[in-house]
Each structure stands twice: as C-alpha cells, then as structure tokens.
C-alpha cells in the first residue's frame, strides 16, 4: 500500500512539473481525434475520461469557496468543449462507417431505449431540450449579467480599497492582494461571458450531430448494408441515442459547473465556505418554517386518495428537523446566558482578588447608553463619527486610532460622550427634536428661548441645545443651528484635529519610511542618514498640529535631506518644510485663491520679536498678562466677525515670529492658522482684514 501511495505521489509531482507539456500534447491529440479514426477500445476510454472529468469539475465547483479559486475555469471549459466535440466526431465516424461506436455508446442506447424505441427517443429529446433551453441558456445569461455588473462595480471597489488603505484599515500588502483579486474577478467573469458561447454552440452542435447520425445512419443502413428500413432505424436509433447521451450528460454537467461558479455568492470572511454548507446553513436558519411545512405535509396526508404513508414520512422528517433546530438554538441561548453569568463572575473579582493583568486605555472611545444600542440614532452617530475619522486620515495623511464603542448605564438614553484616552472631551445629545447653537449668554437671553441642554465643544466654547421648532427664527437672526449629527461631526472633528498629531509616533513614522523605501529607496536611505526617527516624528507632529497635510511625504523628505545636515532644530526644520509646502498650505487656508489675513504693524512685530525667550524646550513670548489678553481678545473678535461674513481668516506674520504666535494661540478656544510671508505664493492674493497694533 505504501509503495502504491509513493508511486501515485511521484506521478502527481511529475504531472505538475510538466503540466504545460501535457496540455500542449492534449490539444494536439484533440485535433488528431477529429481527423484520424480511432478503435472502439480507445473511444470507450476517452468517453469514460470525459464523464469522469465532468463529474470531477462539478464536485470541485461545490467545494471552492470563491470563483477565484478556479480562475482557470474558462480555459478548462474551452478544452472540455473541444474534447467533447472531437469525441462526437470520432463516434459519428464509427457509427456511419461500421454501425458500431464501442461498448459505452451501445450500453447507453440500450439502457435508455429499454425495449421501447419511442419512449427512448422522447426521453432523449427531453434531456436535450433541458440541456439547451434551461441549463445552457440560463448559464449564458447569468454570465453576461455578472460580467456587466462586475465591470460596473470595479471603480467603486477600487476606490474602496484605496480609501481603506489611506485610512490604515488595510496594509499595503493586503491592498495589493485585494487589487489583484479584483482584477482577476473582472477577468474571470469577462472570460466566462465569452466561454459560455462555446457551451451554447456545443449544445447546438450536439443536436445537429444527433440528426446526422439518425438520418445518415438509417440511409446508409438501407442503401449500403442491406437492412430493412425498420431494422436500420432500430440499430441507428440506439447508437444515435447512446452517442447523444455520452455527449449531452458531460455537457450538462459542465454547464451545471459553470452555473454554480458564476451564481455563487462568496463570503470573503470564511475561507472554508462551500456551496453545500452555505445552503444547509441558510435552509435551517428559520426552523419555524420547517415545522410549518411538516404540518402542511401532515394535512396533505389526510386528504382522501393521497399516499398517506409518503406524506406522513415527509411530515415527520421536516417537523423533526425544525424541532431539533429550535432545541439547538435554545440550548445555545442558554449557553450564552451562562457565558454572561461567567462574565459577571469575573467582574466580581474586582472585590475579591488582586488583578495583575495590564489593560491599556482606549485612545478614542464613544460611550452610549445601553438602551440606545442598535437604535437608528446611535447607528447614525457611529457612522458619522467613523466617516469624520476617515476623512481626517484621507485628507491629512496620518493614521488615527480605531474608534471603540462602549455601552454603559450611567448615561441618559439620548446622551453620548466621546473620550480621548477614556477622558470625556465631547458631550452631546442624540435627538431629532433638538438643535445646537453657539451663542453668548447675553445674546441668548434676548432670544426668549428655553435651553434644553448645555455643554461645551472640544475647544471649551459653550453650546446650547434648544427645540428644533426655533430653527427658522434662529436662521432669521443669522444664528447657525445644527442638528445632532452635524454638531457631533463638528465637535469630534475638532477633537481629531487637536489630538490626532500626538498619534504620529515612532511606529507610524517607521511605516512612512517603509513606504518611502519601497517607492524611493535612495531618498529613504538619505533621509534615515540625516534625520532620526524621533526627530522626523516630531516634525510630522508639528505639521499635523497646524493643519498641514503630510501626504506630500516625498517633498517633506527631500526638504529634510537638503537642510537637516546643517540644521538640527526641529522647529526650524518644520518651518523649512512649510516653505517647501507653501502651495499646499495656501490652497488649504485660502478662499477663492485669496488669503483673508490678519496682519501686525512693524512696531508690533518688533515688540513680539524682542519678547521672545528661548529655553531648552523651545521659545515663547514673554509678554505681560494685559498685553497677552488684549492680543488674544483681538484674535477671537476678528475670527468671530470673519466667520459671520463667511470668510476664513488667517494670521500672517514674519517668518521668525510665526512659530511663537502659533504657540501662543494653539490652546485657545478659537483656531486660527498662522502663516509666514515666506509661505505665501504669488498665485494667491493677500486681503488684509485688520492690522493689529499693540
């Protein structure tokens, strides 16, 4: 036995190693089958091989979890169709020349005819019609529609892969694999659309061959072999039906294989999925339906004249399957309850045992009330939070931590909290009956509206929630009112923009360098030589903190390679990178190619410049409290006025004080970008909106 197994293994390896040679000889052999007459023994062997291959393909198609696992099927379909046609030509030649086509053809003919030629012909015609009109036509149509829909869906799937890659949900290797799978899927269904034309043509050719065998054979039997018309028709009918069956049955199986492959709905998350398991799981997913079907079958058994025992047997079978499924589900449910009780027991260890395991804080956490789980309002909120996160990742080029969702009991049913490192930074309500406004208390008192809820945004600005019925009145007063989703999106976006840069650490920076090593290896080598990972991480954090996208990583790397050998201060290197990215920065903070700028007088710039104090941790303005307060009040006032006018203001300062102006305002309630004159390109116009004079 071991020797036989070893021999089979060696034969299999030998075949795999010379598969291309075997395939070439097979194609040549098929062509010679159409030309040269073959002995009956060889024809019997080839017919058996054809039937074996057909059954094998059907079984394989049932076990493949995805059509991509059999991406060579269109080529296999072409080979099997050509082989079957060559075999039909060989059997037709033998039937017409010798009135004999081997034992298999004769056995099939006698078995189907069964002593009654008319019945045999009818059965054969039914099989042929089913093969041509049902299986072949259906598979052809499905292949055509699948190819069209797959091609139409390709751009969307490609964009989805790119989006997941930019969002950090996929690695570069995973994204490449998905792109390759997508390309293979498109090629497969496109090829299947064309390959099904071969199947249709094969079915038509089979019908023509049957007619030729029947009419031509009967004529030859009478004219050349001296048979009577009845004897000739009897002989050639058996041979024709047998030949047709040995061709149509494999053709039917191949068409069935094609249909199963192109109609398969795949599950990417289950590598072990197959057709049989999927069908069984879905048929038994609703046990009540089985119970009802069993009762209906029992009702049929009570009808007079019906086969009572047969219907009772089916009734018991379906009822038993349904009842067993219900019991299984209840048992699993009890197991789930036991698991929940076990969880409670583990939590009781808080009071009885010393916990020694380490648990990290969750970077981004959305807290909801347990009663709001799976509600429409909470689901919409979760979607908008994830969408906001992904937009930040796509637009600014750095990866944010995944958002964790937790349900607790100590919140109001319509309340949510967004936490950073498990510390709440945003609180809000989920209600379509309320709207959120941002006004000062003195203005709100003049509106004669009752506040339903008060909170602050991520910058500490007070927010007031009022009834949605006041929206029109607020709009007339030029007060913007946001629904709960818009308010959540604005507030949580502020959180991402403020806290996101801290997550550009050594690990994330190393990933960027890894990307650069693949795309621009020499540049990556120089960058690693002149800048440490920790310094590069700090520079990227500084850029992201001021709202500068790091997606132009090549420009950042080239600038650092150019200047980092002579300059080692991260702040100065960041300013040099900003100058290299000035087109991007101006585009980001401009409106209609215009920068609405808040400027300083030369005297004010000199005063700020002279107040700079340097420490080991960087520089800062050493201004007296009154001057600082006056300056910040001016910034806040100008921003509020500009936003009401629909403008987007910036602060424009000299290059040597720009960084310190940003350090002064970065933790304030308002948010103003700070640019230097060196970062403004000639393509953008500067429109002064106010000049600060201290």
TrEMBL record:
<feature type="transmembrane region" description="Helical">
    <location>
        <begin position="45"/>
        <end position="64"/>
    </location>
</feature>
<protein>
    <submittedName>
        <fullName>EscV/YscV/HrcV family type III secretion system export apparatus protein</fullName>
    </submittedName>
</protein>
<keyword id="KW-0997">Cell inner membrane</keyword>
<dbReference type="InterPro" id="IPR001712">
    <property type="entry name" value="T3SS_FHIPEP"/>
</dbReference>
<feature type="transmembrane region" description="Helical">
    <location>
        <begin position="21"/>
        <end position="39"/>
    </location>
</feature>
<dbReference type="GO" id="GO:0009306">
    <property type="term" value="P:protein secretion"/>
</dbReference>
<keyword id="KW-0812">Transmembrane</keyword>
<dbReference type="InterPro" id="IPR025505">
    <property type="entry name" value="FHIPEP_CS"/>
</dbReference>
<feature type="transmembrane region" description="Helical">
    <location>
        <begin position="76"/>
        <end position="96"/>
    </location>
</feature>
<keyword id="KW-0813">Transport</keyword>
<dbReference type="InterPro" id="IPR042194">
    <property type="entry name" value="FHIPEP_1"/>
</dbReference>
<feature type="transmembrane region" description="Helical">
    <location>
        <begin position="289"/>
        <end position="305"/>
    </location>
</feature>
<feature type="transmembrane region" description="Helical">
    <location>
        <begin position="108"/>
        <end position="134"/>
    </location>
</feature>
<dbReference type="InterPro" id="IPR006302">
    <property type="entry name" value="T3SS_HrcV"/>
</dbReference>
<feature type="transmembrane region" description="Helical">
    <location>
        <begin position="235"/>
        <end position="254"/>
    </location>
</feature>
<feature type="transmembrane region" description="Helical">
    <location>
        <begin position="203"/>
        <end position="223"/>
    </location>
</feature>
<keyword id="KW-1003">Cell membrane</keyword>
<dbReference type="InterPro" id="IPR042193">
    <property type="entry name" value="FHIPEP_3"/>
</dbReference>
<keyword id="KW-1133">Transmembrane helix</keyword>
<keyword id="KW-0472">Membrane</keyword>
<feature type="transmembrane region" description="Helical">
    <location>
        <begin position="311"/>
        <end position="327"/>
    </location>
</feature>
<dbReference type="Pfam" id="PF00771">
    <property type="entry name" value="FHIPEP"/>
</dbReference>
<dbReference type="InterPro" id="IPR042196">
    <property type="entry name" value="FHIPEP_4"/>
</dbReference>
<dbReference type="GO" id="GO:0005886">
    <property type="term" value="C:plasma membrane"/>
</dbReference>
<comment type="similarity">
    <text>Belongs to the FHIPEP (flagella/HR/invasion proteins export pore) family.</text>
</comment>
């Amino acid at each position: 036995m071991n020797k036989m197994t070893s021999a089979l293994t060696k034969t299999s390896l030998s075949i795999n190693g010379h598969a291309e040679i075997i395939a070439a000889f097979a194609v040549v052999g098929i062509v010679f089958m159409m030309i040269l007459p073959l002995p009956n023994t060889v024809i019997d062997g080839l017919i058996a091989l054809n039937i074996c291959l057909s059954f094998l393909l059907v079984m394989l198609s049932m076990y493949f979890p995805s059509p991509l696992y059999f991406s060579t099927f269109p080529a296999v379909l072409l080979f099997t169709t050509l082989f079957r046609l060559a075999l039909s030509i060989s059997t037709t030649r033998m039937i017409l020349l010798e009135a004999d086509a081997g034992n298999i053809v004769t056995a099939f003919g006698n078995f189907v005819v069964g002593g009654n030629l008319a019945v045999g012909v009818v059965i054969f015609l039914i099989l042929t019609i089913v093969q041509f009109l049902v299986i072949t036509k259906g598979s052809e149509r499905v292949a055509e529609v699948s190819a069209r829909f797959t091609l139409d869906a390709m751009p969307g799937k490609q964009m989805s892969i790119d989006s997941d890659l930019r969002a950090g949900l996929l690695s570069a290797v995973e994204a490449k694999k998905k792109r390759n799978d997508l390309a293979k899927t498109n090629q497969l269904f496109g090829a299947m659309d064309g390959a099904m034309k071969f199947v249709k043509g094969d079915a038509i050719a089979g019908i023509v061959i049957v007619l030729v065998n029947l009419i031509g054979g009967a004529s030859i039997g009478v004219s050349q072999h001296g048979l009577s018309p009845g004897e000739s028709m009897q002989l050639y009918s058996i041979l024709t039906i047998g030949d047709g069956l040995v061709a149509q049955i494999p053709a039917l199986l191949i068409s069935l294989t094609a249909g199963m492959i192109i109609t398969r709905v795949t599950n990417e998350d289950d590598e072990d999925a197959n057709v049989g398991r999927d069908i069984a799981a879905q048929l038994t997913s609703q046990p009540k339906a089985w119970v009802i079907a069993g009762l209906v079958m029992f009702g049929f058994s009570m009808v007079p004249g019906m086969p009572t025992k047969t219907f009772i047997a089916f009734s018991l079978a379906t009822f038993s399957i349904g009842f067993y499924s219900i019991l299984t589900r209840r048992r699993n449910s009890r197991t789930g309850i036991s698991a929940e009780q076990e969880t409670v027991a583990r939590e009781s260890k808080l009071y009885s045992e010393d916990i020694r395991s380490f648990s990290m804080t969750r970077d981004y956490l959305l807290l909801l009330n347990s009663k709001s789980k799976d509600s429409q309002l909470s689901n919409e909120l979760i979607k908008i939070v994830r969408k906001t996160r992904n937009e930040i990742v796509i637009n600014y080029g750095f990866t944010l931590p995944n958002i964790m969702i937790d349900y607790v009991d100590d919140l109001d049913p319509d309340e949510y909290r967004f936490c950073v490192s498990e510390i709440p930074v945003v609180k809000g309500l989920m209600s379509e009956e309320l709207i959120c406004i941002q006004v000062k208390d003195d203005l709100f008192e003049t509106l004669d509206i009752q506040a339903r809820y008060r909170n602050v945004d991520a910058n500490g600005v007070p927010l007031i929630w009022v009834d949605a019925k006041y929206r029109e009145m607020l709009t007339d007063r030029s007060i913007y009112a946001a629904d709960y989703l818009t308010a959540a999106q604005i507030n949580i976006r502020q959180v991402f923009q403020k806290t996101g840069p801290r997550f550009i650490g050594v690990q994330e920076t190393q990933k960027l360098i890894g990307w650069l090593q693949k795309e621009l290896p020499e540049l990556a080598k120089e960058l690693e030589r002149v800048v440490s990972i920790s310094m590069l991480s700090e520079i990227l954090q500084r850029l992201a903190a001021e709202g500068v996208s790091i997606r132009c990583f090549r420009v950042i790397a080239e600038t650092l390679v150019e200047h980092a050998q002579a300059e080692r201060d991260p702040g100065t290197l960041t300013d040099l990178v900003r100058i290299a990215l000035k087109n991007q920065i101006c585009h980001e903070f401009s409106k209609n190619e215009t920068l609405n700028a808040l400027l300083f007088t030369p005297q004010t710039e000199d005063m700020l410049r002279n107040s700079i104090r340097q420490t080991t941790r960087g520089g800062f303005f050493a201004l007296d409290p009154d001057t600082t307060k006056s300056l910040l009040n001016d910034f806040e006032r100008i921003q509020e006025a500009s936003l009401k006018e629909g403008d987007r203001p910036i602060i424009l300062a000299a290059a040597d004080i720009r960084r310190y102006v940003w350090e002064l305002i970065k933790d304030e309630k308002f948010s103003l970008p700070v640019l230097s004159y060196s970062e403004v390109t000639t393509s953008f116009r500067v429109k002064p909106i106010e000049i600060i004079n201290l």
